[in-house]
Amino acid sequence: MKLSYNWLKEYIRALPSPDKLAERLTMAGLEVEGIEAPGKDIKGVVIAQILSVEKHPNADRLSFCKVKTDKGIHSIVCGARNMKAGDKVALALHGTTLPRGIKIEKTKIRGVESEGMMCSESELGLKDASEGIMILPQDLPVGKDFTEAMGLNDIILNINVTPNRPDCLSILGIAREVAAITRCKMHEVRWKRSEVGGKKQPQTSNLKPPSVSIDESSLCRRYSARVVENIKVGPSPNWLKQRLESHGFRSINNVVDVTNYVMIEYGHPLHAFDSDLVDGKQIVVRMAHEHESIQTLDNITRKLTKDMLVICDKEKPIALAGVMGGKESEIQDTTKNIFLESAYFDPSCVRRTSKALGISTDSSYRFERGADIEGVTRALDRAAQMIVELAGGDMAKGMIDKYPRPYKPITIKVRLSRINKILGLNINKKEVEDCLKRLGIDFKPVRVQKGEGAVWNVIPPSFRVDILKEVDIIEEIARLYGYEKIPTILPLARLSTAKKTGVDMIREKVRDILTNNGFLEAINYSFVSPKVFEIAPEINNGLRLINPLTEEQSIMRRSLISSLLETMRYNVNHNNSDIKIFEIGRIFIPKGKETEEREMVSGIISGLRYGEAWSVRRDAVDFYDIKGVVEQILTGLGVANYTFTAKADILFLHPGKGGVFEVNGKPIGMTGEAHPDTLQSLDIKQPAYIFELDLQAIMTVMSSQKGYRPIPKYPMIIRDAAMIVNREIPFQELYDAVKGAGIKLLEKVDIFDVYYGENIPEGKLSIALRFVYRSSERTLTDNEVNNVHVIILDNLKNRFGVEIRGEA
Amino acid sequence: MRDRLLQLEKAALSEISSIKNKEAVIELKNRYLGRKGELASLTKELGKLSHEERPVVGDLINSIRGRIEERVNSLLTAFAQDEREQRLKAERVDVTLPGRYLPLGNSHPITQIMDEVVSIFLGMGFKVAEGPEVETDYYNFEALNIPKDHPARDMQDTFYISDDVLLRTHTSPVQIRVMQGKKPPLRVIAPGKVYRRDSDITHTPMFHQVEGFMVDESITFGDLKGVLTAFLHSLFREDIAIRFRPSFFPFTEPSVEVDIQCVMCNGKGCRVCKGSGWLEILGAGMIHPMVFKAVDYDSERYTGFAFGLGIERIAMLKYGIDDIRMFFENDVRFLRQF
Ligand SMILES: [Zn+2]
Fold it and tell me: How far is Cα B160 from Cα B163, in angstroms, rounded to an integer?
């Protein structure tokens, strides 16, 4: 909410300086987000009137003007062309300094003396750029200080009013608040109502106001109105325009401007109808009927529904209650008689209508937060009176005020002990009562037992719609007492073990392993583009947002891989083609009405294994790099008995270079080369390798238990064997066969070379295995080892037809 | 004989003094001292000498051998040393070339700040809790005293999955879920991703938050100030100025906005703090009785405070990042800096 310092000063004469005021308001909960003082650097500029504009005798592009101020007539040479004799302008005479440091001096321009400058908006620092000089409204008095005449000597505070304080959406409300905070006295601006009455009887039947009936008295708890006749609609006077503009309102005409002015001042929204356009001289406040519609002031025709409250004439809706008026009964230049409405509408009802139709107005903003039901007629009288003063006409005698169930103040029991318990204070009865008094909150002490501590029955004023419970009063006490004065202490608490969650610890471990392997962590948005599903139609039933910001962010992801592929594309396009990136995050799987959220870790690698460096080979990463990373993670997490099986139809993966990790037959993740089609659809031109692991699944099969095994006491005996194997036989089968032979002395078997190509027959490859034999009880002899080694090799020969090429 | 011996010694020593390389020394050694060398052949002539002369000349031969040997050996040592020095010189590498290592990766800056925040609270005995990101209207709003049609809903523009299901706008629903399952005393923080329908230089539609709360029989506003002051001092600087000012959140009352002295200008006023010298850093307050009612706690018996803070904002301040969108672009040139 924008707030004029000068306006506020009409209420609080001893107002602190703008900076001090901003500080006090901020520390009382009305955060001042900015202070604007558009005219603060303009000094000495005055209003002048151009008497004549002639061509400069020596320069075609310049004009020579005579201008008048209260001090006399001045000669000014000017480069602009947008002025004519009679115009009012902002004149900076010699000796003046303008905001951007321009110093005005008497000079001769091409031989003609110029005593000053007629200013443009940009020269006055009011705009960044402007064309021509500023032509001012005709009604400004010649000689008057420019900033004063234009209302630029004001300072505008931008206040962030929280949703609980609709009473502060007005000058009056802020004034009350300032009075409470600063203990300054508030003077309510007084004015006199001049109803037509007594001798001056109504002249036409028009002055008889329309009849008003409320069908929905729970949603419209009060409806008051006045009729003003024989007005003349026209532009508002300058001061009114300026006030509205500095509060962010556009001036429309003297009637509408007054309703806005009163809304800013008192916080209560008003609406003026052209009463001659109200059909049947009848106002009905009711719910809209199905299929009814209304053209609102913004020229849009809106379909209404049964839950919207409307103001109707005999037949049809003429306004959306509390939200916006209708076009048909709008105030026009020709309007003679007006029907001025001031009502109280139910906050939820106004908000629903406003949301449903997508219209938020200054009126709906205030009603949905809660207007002051007791302030309805004050705003009405004030506006009617101002209209009479500014647009002429007569205010009809008598006011309509339908108020079926008048406001009953609420009473709240407040305990001193509770105040001190919540705030951690030890304040006394007097201090509390002082705060309440300053806030205009009524209270009566309640009789209590001796030693029980003070208790009050507290009655908040009608405009404080936020005060309903004891705790609301406690907040008020804290605010006025000052948060900074509440002692800062550390709580006493029982010791307890502080622990991260299980999944958090896994995340940490996985992160350590991956970053130690050179991976960078990425964080992508959880929502992705439906285009992702052109690559992966299999998962096209993800959760869809009803109201995404863009189509690109409309579906909750079901895999982290699509995000990482995007991340890779982004970086490759920015000339960073050696990629090692991972992400940890959730995927979202719809399960009927529920959503399953699974925590996943996914990684992508591409480009050079070690990057570009003088000291390493420029090898590209391959499948075994990514598989190795996953193996490291699983080992690191203590997942012991996993298996890896080749699989041809894994989403995003190359059919010949991918597989799944399983524990006890349950999948826990996958890895492989990204499918070339996937990469092509993303326009990525280098191979990439990816993995994804399900951390939740891993959590159920991992073991954080670490066991100690004694370091072997006896030496090992090593046997190496190179063999020619059919390429179709997976290494895993050979390995399983070796381990499956049940040789107790075989400690482990490692693969140390794989080779195919020259010297190896087509369709075969050479594998070199290293067998380590050891006993935990004695030193083995060569013979012992030879006896079992030959069993293993024979087994391989018999089962797979391997040809042993060399032994050592 | 004696003269020939002395002659020989003289010749050998003079040869030695002008020798240039190791090979020549070895050749000389063989020539004079070898089994078939000159000294050996003279030794053979000892037999021709008289009984008396023999030991004397024998001694002379030995002493000559000794002297030549000594010179030869010291020369050989010198040459060997020389050679080693030459070799080491040749083995020199350019030690100014950069070292070889597999570059370390690093976690995301948001993860790092999140860890820092979480560990400060762990240190104060808070436990970590997590909850779903796809939430119901009840947990995200209703139970937190934000009924439907309440203007406070405007404070958090929400992504909806359906009328009743949404992406959580804060991690506060975890507060409700924890309190539903446990009785006080409670000290809990809930870190996680949250979503708001907002996108500009200071807002992204997804960001990270840590919500925390403490409930017990006599928790006061003073405790709130104490815990949050300790936290901010630990996160930023022990002497950083902090101010607490009234604000509004539907689920706390009294509510408070906590500012720290601007870390960019030390409170003098700059672009980042919009000239105020203060930076809004977290929101907090005493848990509203309506929230306790929603989880069946007796608000006459229990009191507590809750707070929430945005991790991105803290990361931006700590690292001097001025565009929040950088965090989610995942440019490796950005990620690598942390
Ligand atoms: Zn600053």
Answer: 7
